Amino acid sequence: MNQAGLYIHFPFCRRACFYCHFFKKKFKPDPVDECLRHIKLEMELRRDPGLAVDSVYIGGGSPSLLNAGQVSGLLEGAARSFSVDGKSEITMEANPEDLEIALLKELRAAGVNRLSIGAQSFHDRDLRFLRRTHDAARAIQAFDMADAAGFTNISIDLIIGLPTQTERSMELNFRMVEALRPSHVSLYILENVPRSEDGERDARLYFQARQSLLDLRFRHYEVSNFCRPGRASRHNLKYWRMEPYVGHGPSAAGFLGGRDYRNASNLSRYGAAIRGGKLPQVKTRQLDPGKRRIITGLRLLEGIPSPAFAAFPSATAFLLREGFLVRRGKNIAVPPEKILLLNEILGYFI
Ligand code: SF4
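Structure tokens for the assembled complex are given below, as produced in the milestone run.
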């Protein structure tokens, strides 16, 4: 069996961003301490020392509000319950305004070896539109501090399609990527951000951004993700390749033994289940494995092995004929120029 990933959802933020749909609550010390206790108890409930894990991802929420001792506590809990490889990729999401050099050094010492920094843009105008609490200078400073603390695997999140953006301002964002040299860039077109124009503009900006990243020798490997050679997110690849992952924390999802699960997106219900010794899961729709394979796998530019399409001969033949799917060696994939039509393409298989 492939090695599993372990996801930990830390559901607290200083304040809620209007465009964000992740489960989160306002950061306050007492509920945070209680939630961390519950997450560690959940790890005990899900304990499986036979499960080999080679990636841990602490997401949220804003896990960079945690101190290094709290992060160590979570990683130690994980190591007690699962067989976590010493060479695991251990990622933590971080907001630029939370990062300080001392914290970054302590996080490295605690075992975190990959950061995903939510820069979003290197233009103050965009950041003000998003009502972020950091500015562009702070995003650059956060990256430089992470670099100085010894992080060699840093991903940057950028948002595209904002009404404040122009082709020129986007280009300057990528000049900043060129200067900072992150190992990975995630490029998001957010669905619930108001726009001044239609989807065509988003597509124009997306393809401009894609080309800028390709020119900087990034590899486009998933709809929203670009990496330097060998720096694809080991953890996120598990989602798209239907490999097992164990989710912990309120609202976290997991995929184990070929079945999807999701935890309650509610702090009290989550905590009550854990205190009662029960897994805090809610009912989840189980997708047909064949469909799930296509829905998740086609997000990858490498595509998926062609036998996965055997159950859909006419849809596959039509999409291949019309150029919405292409053969890539033994795989079938969505060509990059059609990748923003992925949802429409998936509609043929659902
Ligand atoms: S900081 Fe991140 S997780 Fe928190 S509300 Fe904003 S976008 Fe969502």
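The mean pLDDT is 95. The radius of gyration is 20 Å. Further analysis is deferred to the final report.
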